[in-house]
Amino acid sequence: MTVLEVLQATTAYLKKHNVENSRLNAEHLMAHALGRKRIELYLDFERELTETELGPLRELVKRRSEGEPLQHLLGTVEFCELTFLCDKRAMVPRPETEQLVELVESRIENRESRIVDVGTGSGVIAISLAAKFPEAKILAVDVSDDALALAQENAAMLNLKDRVQFVKSRLLENVEGAFDLIVANLPYVSTQDRHTLSREVLHDPEVALFAGKRGDELVRELIDQAPTRLHPGGLLALEIGLGQSETLLSALAEKNYRDICSKKDYNGVTRFIFARYG
User: Fold this and answer.
1) In the listed set 37, 66, 95, which residue is the last one of a domain according to the structure?
2) Tens-digit pLDDT profile for residues 19-54
3) Are residues 163 and 57 in the same domain?
């Protein structure tokens, strides 16, 4: 079979197994299996594929059809114009979190800011900010040893390991000092909503997904902790779950935060909250 024929057959197979964006997935998997770039497939449509080339591709396609995330199969993910390692040790970064980074960047007034990324996961927020603000002092914390190991591998791969400090901590418990910015994409899914999640999302570590019965427990706890860890006028930036904005905005007001505002993501969902303290 030619490259084009295999691509078409793979697309049909993935579509039959309810994989969204089947053609795009097929292109990524084929390019990865062949060690080529996606664009190069279009220049090679008529080439016959050997059995040696087809074997690894079949295995990848089978795993993708069973719900394993594309990013896990490729081993990498693009985030804020950088390429990060991606595997089952941490949550697959979402496009919404890229938007959080963009919104945070526009609010950083001092390029030498002291920043902490709480619940760093694979490190995408902290490392992306380190790349944008070379003078900033950045700390990344997570409760998971696996996630921290992956984040450190990403920092090393991107030649930013000297720019980000990594600490194991549940929220801010093991963190010292005060910060100009506390940014967090914490677990915000209710344990009662497990049945609503896609099979791809369920490949993420549970510790990165579920916060408790309400879903906003960890975010609320961070809201309580943050005032003593923010410099006067420091910014708290949060990514939150669907339907959580109203109660969390009230919680911030009750704790005497100021300049409280929310922002919608590209899908029109209220996904981000910002507030200053002191």
Assistant:
1) 66
2) 999 999 999 999 999 999 999 999 999 999 999 999
3) no
153-173 b/e (C-beta count within 10 Å ≥ 16 → b)? bbbeebebbebbebeebebbe
Distance between CA atoms of residues 117 and 120, nearest Å:
6
Whether residues 42 and 138 share a domain: the answer is no
Question: What is the predicted pLDDT for the residue at 140?
Answer: 98
Rounded Cα gap, residues 156 and 104, in angstroms: 23
Please check whether residues 54 and 188 belong to one and the same domain. no
Residue type, 181: L
- pLDDT per position as a tens digit, 222-238: 999 999 999 999 999 99
Which phi-psi region, left, alpha or beta, contains residue 196 (left: φ > 0; alpha: ψ -120 to 50)? alpha
Domain stop point among 66, 92, 108: 66
Residue 154 lies in a domain: yes
**CATH value at residue 47:** 1.10.8.10
Burial class (CB in 10 A: 0-12, 13-18, 19+), 91: buried
pLDDT at 278: 85
Whether the model clears a pTM of 0.85, i.e. scores above it, the answer is: yes
DSSP of 223-251: HHHGGGGEEEEEEEEEE--TT-HHHHHHH
